[in-house]
Amino acid sequence: MNTDRKALWAVRQSALPTVVRSCPDCPGMRHRASGKIRANANGKLLDVWLLLSCATCDRTSKVPVHERVHVSTLEPARLVAYENNDPSAVRELVMSASLAAKNRYRLDWTGTWELETRTPLYALDDPNPLSVQVRFELPAPVRVERLLQLGLALSRAEVRRLVADERIRLPFAPDAKAHQDFELTVHGPGFVDAAKHAKSLDAPGPEHPGLTRIGLRPHPARSSHTGPRRTRRSLM
Ligand SMILES: [Zn+2]
Known about the structure:
Elements: E1 6-13, E2 18-20, E3 30-42, E4 45-54, E5 60-70, H1 76-83, H2 87-94, H3 97-102, E6 106-108, E7 113-116, E8 130-136, E9 142-143, H4 144-152, H5 156-164, E10 168-169, E11 177-178, E12 182-186, H6 191-196, H7 209-215, H8 223-235
Parallel strand pairs: 1-8
Antiparallel strand pairs: 1-7, 2-3, 2-6, 3-4, 4-5, 8-12, 9-11, 10-12
Helix pairs in contact: 4-5
The chain binds zinc ion (ZN).
């Protein structure tokens, strides 16, 4: 069996998650990272806070990151990043599940990611299996069937049918949420038929009317597929 066909799907960050916790000044619950980190040294002891802004009233609040730690426990480069409000340090802190748990707030990941496939849309009627590596640039919990809908340009019902028919092999249930790298396989039409009915192996083309309809479906041009190509060209 030809298993050389590989694709890479990347879950790219498009925004930072929202911090959900109550605001002392208003009924608002949503906070965004202000882009600032405050580090205060008192002798050899250090306090570090991540600063948030209430999305409703703009009040600034502080999330303790380090409290009364000895300066030597922090890498000098990290301290410099904190003192300079380094965007990657802000990003890391606001996305941190452990910081959220420690400070008892929830992260809302809605609207924080987009799927970049980099490859032409996969033709579902291709008889060769396609192995897809899914890489996460951020730990956003993403429903697996949503990824498949975007990556294969199918409806949720079509995705569920392909999973039920074992045309799509997943390490999770389709309604599970993934937040880190995984791999899936898309098998061509006839895969299930061939496995179940060895006699039909030499029959040309797909036999399942539902799958034929999906396989021959014209693929709409999607901006998420032309975007990365434009980006790459502009970098050349
Ligand atoms: Zn507020």
